[in-house]
Design a protein that fits this description.
The chain contains 34 helices and two strands. It has a two-stranded antiparallel sheet. The N and C termini lie far apart (86 Å). The protein has helices at residues 2-10, 27-36, 39-56, 60-74, 81-96, 100-114, 120-136, 140-156, 160-168, 176-192, 199-216, 219-232, 239-252, 259-276, 279-296, 299-316, 319-336, 339-356, 359-376, 381-391, 398-401, 403-410, 414-421, 427-430, 437-450, 454-463, 485-496, 499-515, 519-538, 544-568, 571-591, 596-606, 611-618, 622-636; strands at 14-16, 22-24.
Length: 655
């Protein structure tokens, strides 16, 4: 052999490398030599190479993949115990290195090497291993298919433990079609498992059921199941069990009343996952932390969670981690007014979701664009058409069904929007609090506002009572954050006609949104406040003094909104604000109780001129000016000339 290598080296076919190994000088030479070998000779050489490498006893991370490759090529028939053994070892090594594509390849080799002679239980185990690697790689559909096949084999073999394992591979995916198949696997296993022998598996299955109940919107049932799961896992030392029940409890506790508990659960998940080297569970913990930080208005904590997710993405190369990172960056960008950047992050997240084949993640792109359109006040017709097409394959759940009327209303198709919205108007009274409750209520409120539906807006206003101290997010991983819930509730109060309450809520929301730099929502708060003051000013029976005060406040708020909309490039909202300023000007003129001469005197008094100075300026007697001032005070309902306010400019400042 050595003489042959020397001769090949001298001929320029083989060369020596820096690490003291030898190899062909070019891949074409290698392939040509290999092609000249007879099949039997190839098999013999691969077998010899596999045997020699096995005897060297190197670490699996260094040699398992090479040995598995030689045994696969040395196998004259499908079944090969050595290929099976080394392929599983190679898959394990690749998995530990987060090289999931390699792990999947070796896992498939192991299944091929097992052949038809393997028992049903053995084949189920191999399929479950492969499914775990596919899930880690983001191949959700492929992973679920393996789980279903593994479950059938496990049940046939009388192995309820393997049946349960098959139902627990895919997690954190709440698409209804996925949850249905997982429920079927777990349900069959639960009926067959022995509590004394399989307590951990039972806890994990209960957790899976809790996740399914939460996803269906059965919040109370989800909380009860998650409590049972936590009790069942109380004595477990398995980190997988602990993480599964924490996940279930977190989703079941997504409403704001459980915010403190969710923060603790997220911290526990991160701690356990880090010790157990479970990167996906770490990801969920950081995503939950980010969502809770949004609800508290703590952008420092939110950014820290994103830093951890970015580090996890770089180290573990998890596609799902990168998707969450992009999605959360899009959410933050919208919140602070970096609108172009938010669309770029959203597009990158959508491209990644399509690439890994997860339709539920890909569908969130259209949901994000719909919420974005609601913020900027406009939707392009092409965007509407794409959204309606995507909606055709979306789950038939309320939050998805609300998307169509919202988009049509934004596009000006009001009759179509009303027809689609009609069966959804009672959701505030009927929808149980659960993972999608917050997002659903927000969408109902948006559509009610766009359609001027006072009854439905009143329903949303009432169910939001008691949450005004928080910011918007749904507790499960924010799609978008629209700033303070005080502002959201104020919008519904205004549409419902609760104008005094709306003013107070807008002021509270403005303070909250300004505190975190939520520029678009500060501007929207000013716009809503301006509309509310105008509505109060023109309502029947309003006192003249209050009318003037409301009109002045409306103009001030609208001008503040316009200034921010202009800076952020929110052109459609700026047009709305200009139109509102025109309405304020018209209302101001119509509501003015003063004559033209009294208005002249009023404005000069407001500028600080004395009666004598005014008389000189207007060529009137001082007594006539005194009479005008008395009439002005009486008409405006004020006691002293010092209370006469300066009259604001009447023209919109839209630029």
């Amino acid at each position: 052999m050595l003489r042959a290598i020397d001769a090949a080296t001298a001929a320029g076919i083989v060369r020596r490398f820096a690490d003291d190994t030898s190899g062909f000088t070019h891949a074409l030479i290698r392939d040509a030599v290999y092609a000249d070998l007879t099949p039997s000779r190839r098999t013999a050489l691969h077998r010899a190479a596999a045997t020699a490498l096995t005897e060297r006893r190197g670490p699996d991370s260094a040699v398992a993949g090479v040995i598995a490759t030689h045994w696969r090529r040395a196998s004259a028939r499908a079944e090969s115990p050595p290929c099976l053994d080394w392929s599983r070892r190679a898959a394990r090594s690749a998995r530990e290195a987060a090289a999931y594509a390699e792990a999947i390849r070796f896992g498939q080799w192991a299944i091929d090497a097992a052949g038809s002679t393997a028992t049903e239980a053995e084949r189920a185990e191999l399929l479950i291993d492969l499914a775990r690697d596919e899930f880690a790689a983001g191949r959700i559909t492929d992973s679920l298919e393996r789980c279903v096949r593994a479950g059938a084999l496990a049940e046939s073999a009388g192995r309820p433990d393997l049946l349960a394992e098959a139902g627990l591979v895919v997690h954190g995916v709440t698409a209804p079609t996925v949850m249905t198949q997982l429920d079927q696997l777990c349900g069959r296993a639960l009926h067959q498992l022995d509590p004394a022998e399989h307590a951990d598996l039972i806890a994990r299955i209960l957790a899976q059921y809790a996740l399914s109940a939460a996803d269906r919107g059965a919040g109370a049932q989800a909380r009860e199941l998650s409590e049972r799961a936590m009790r069942a896992a109380a004595r477990s030392t398995d980190p997988d069990v602990a993480l599964d029940v924490i996940h279930a409890r977190h989703l079941a506790s997504s409403s704001l009343e459980f915010l403190d508990e969710r923060i603790e659960l997220a911290a526990r998940a991160v701690e356990i996952a880090a010790d157990a080297e479970q990167p996906l569970a770490q990801l969920w913990g950081y995503a939950w932390t980010a969502d809770a930080a949004l609800q508290r208005g703590d952008l420092t904590a939110f950014d820290a969670a994103l830093d951890h997710i970015e580090l996890l993405t770089d180290r573990r190369r998890l596609p799902i981690a990168r998707w969450h990172l992009l999605r959360l960056r899009a959410t933050r960008s919208v919140l602070v007014g970096e609108l172009a950047a938010s669309l770029e992050y959203d597009s990158a997240a959508h491209e990644l979701a399509v690439g890994i084949g997860d339709l539920s993640l890909a569908g969130l792109h259209h949901a994000f664009r719909g919420m974005y359109a609601a913020i900027v006040g406009h939707v392009e017709r092409a965007e509407l058409d794409a959204a309606v097409t995507a909606l055709a394959v979306a789950p038939k759940i309320p939050i998805a069904q609300l998307f169509a009327p919202m988009m049509h209303a934004l596009a000006g198709d009001l009759d179509e929007a009303r027809a689609l919205f009609e069966p959804l108007r009672t959701l505030p009274d009927t929808l149980e609090v659960g993972p999608r409750w917050a997002g659903t209520m927000h969408s109902v409120g948006i559509v009610a506002g766009l359609l001027d539906d006072t009854v439905t807006a009143d329903r949303v206003y009432r169910v939001y009572r008691g949450v005004e101290q928080h910011y918007s997010a749904d507790g499960t991983g924010a799609l978008i954050c629209v700033g303070s819930l005080a502002r959201v509730r104020a919008d519904n109060a205004r549409v419902a006609g609760h104008l005094d309450e709306a003013v107070a809520l807008y002021h509270r929301g403005l303070a909250m949104d300004a505190a975190i730099g939520a520029k678009p929502f500060v501007a929207l708060g000013h716009l809503g406040l301006a509309r509310t003051h105008l509505a109060r000013a023109i309502q029947p029976g309003a006192h003249a003094r209050e009318v003037c005060a409301d009109l002045r406040a409306a103009r001030t708020a609208a001008e503040q909104a316009a200034a921010v909309f202009r800076r952020l490039g929110m052109s459609y909202r700026l047009l709305e604000t200009d139109a509102l300023l025109t309405e304020v000007t018209t209302a101001t003129r119509a509501a003015d109780p003063l004559t033209a001469r009294e208005r002249e005197v009023h404005d000069l008094v407001a500028c600080g001129l004395s009666n004598r100075e005014i008389a000189t300026r207007l060529v009137l007697s001082e007594r006539t000016v005194e009479s005008h001032v008395r009439n002005i005070l009486a008409k405006l309902g004020i006691a002293a000339r010092t209370e006469i306010p300066r009259r604001p400019a009447e023209s919109p400042h839209s630029g």
